[in-house]
């Protein structure tokens, strides 16, 4: 069984993986929410420029800029996730008792690779023009949101796998400590009273 320090490192890496993924998903939502807030209350000095561009054009440009930033952040994070997944897989595979569990982070890594090489490029290509597409291009918008939903489902599945792995390791490590305490207690009982304990028992008598 891996040492407690080994487990703590794995917990820390899983925490980074799950936590940063959740944070990026939240910031992506907040970025577009901020655009709506800006359009409702434009800055005083930029009110003229906003008026000249028109609300529809301004919204399209702001959403385009936000989309490019989001894609850049997620693409960079996908590279980090690939490294994290391989590292956690190697750490679990290195120990015989957790070798089978290495399949979980390896599966998570494959999901990231699927996102990075199959979904992200398509989302990037569609996302860069979706805000300026004519209404006749509704099919491309539908395709974009379908891919977006698939990406989100993969994110949720991967997060649940990571959370499940962390909980399993924690429970397993806790059970190991309980068994160790019981074993030490049984050894103390079988060894009989210590000299100090015999002396205390004699005084009581």
Description:
By secondary structure, the chain is an all-alpha fold. 85% of the residues lie in helices and 0% in strands. It contains 6 helices and no strands. It has helices at 4-40, 47-53, 55-93, 103-130, 138-191, 195-204. The longest helix is centred in the C-terminal third of the chain and has 54 residues, at 138-191. 10% of the residues are buried. The mean pLDDT is 85.
Structure summarized in a few sentences:
With 205 residues, this protein is mainly alpha-helical. The protein has helices at 4-40, 47-53, 55-93, 103-130, 138-191, 195-204.
Annotate the secondary structure layout.
Blueprint (H helix, E strand, L loop, with lengths): L3 H37 L6 H7 L1 H39 L9 H28 L7 H54 L3 H10 L1
Helix pairs in contact: 1-3, 1-5, 3-4, 4-5
Tag the structure with descriptive keywords.
single chain; 205 residues; 85% helix; mainly alpha; 6 helices
Any idea what the shape is?
Answer: elongated
Percent helix, as a range, is: over 70%
Low-confidence stretches: none
The proportion of residues in beta strands is: under 5%
The number of distinct helices, counting runs of at least 4 residues, comes to 6
